[in-house]
Input
Amino acid sequence: MNLKEVCDYYSRDDVTNALLSLAKNRETVGVFRNGSFDIRPNVLINPSDIQVMARAGTVEFHCSLEHWSNVMALKSDNYQHVRTGWDIVLDLDCKDLELAKVAAKVLFKDLKKHGISHVDVKFTGNNGLHMGLPWESIPKKVGQENTSMLYPDLARKVAAYLRERATEDLERALLKKWSPEKLSEMSGKPVGSLYSDPDTYTLDPYQVVDIDPILISPRHLFRMPYSLNSKTFLASLPVSPSRLDEFQKKEADPAKFKAKPGFLQSGEEGELELLITEALDWSARKVTNDKKEASRKYVLEKAVPRELFPPCIMHILEGLADGKKRSVFILINFLSSMNWGYDAIERELMEWNAKNNPPLREGYIRGQLSHFKRKGQSALPPNCNNEAYMASFGACKPDKTCTAGTSVITIKNPASYPFKEMKKERGRKK
Output
């Protein structure tokens, strides 16, 4: 599409009405053809706002998962007090739309078991799907705390819980429909890399289609329904769950539909209560198990030096082109686990960011650091076998310490690596 065709599309009354309907009380930002974002924060109030942005080169419109009482207050570092709610949006990311359809149906089935019927789904405009659970369905209090203040931690726990529960069902559903060789072809990955356990040929479904909780982060944006996709110029079209099987990409041709408001705008109060309760229980048990797993014979009296860091962390610290936002999360948790203080972590992240291509916005890093500081407690970085992190952007570089001289990675978490190195050093001194 050329500039005129894009402007004509965003001048349609049905499209502007649908965009403005969802944009209310949300940060809404334009994305240019080259993928760069317009100035943040921004809002859409009138149809003319959309048309002016389109004429200036905006191709996509993205909005926040969070709802705000004053979007322009986001210019300040202390903006959490203006958050009034948030939605959960799961990104089913893959290279073939048919894979995303299977994942969506598995998740629908599980959500139904939790008594949830208000689920929205939309085509991303390329190969994936977005599944949304609206704020109206989320309990407004969890214990004595206002749920609006529990973002993104609570949303991430729900997403991780759903991802964990879906693993076996998704594996079965994928293998029921396609052979491993066909899944390899559809995902663009070698057959061998699709197995979580090569000895038993257990398929890791998230090598084929991912459900990524890390996308749920402060001020995260997602492509709005009816926004164009700058790669395909198809619209991010809402799809009724009942006709997901028959949906085809060609239906998202801008000339073939009439836009209707409604995405993430209807729910049933408290409908997610059971899901959230179970997700919190699952998360608490997982943290307990992780702590047992990570119990050390060593008590850290000072910060662990860089020369003891695992190769994955050293690779990240050299600077990245991909996986930078996930790496902020990894580095903060890893360095805090290594007894690094807040100021030292901040300096390290800023020096690291200068090596990235391109660097992240400093405001994003400071926001993540601020959240970590407020939380006042550290957590382990993601486990080595969590395919959504190190392996997904090529940071997993196992050495002899990682594998203990075998062909299998024996370290379960990057934070374990320095302690294994210390143990080896103590043995050498003896």
About this structure: The first helix runs from residue 3 to 10. The longest strand covers residues 58-64.
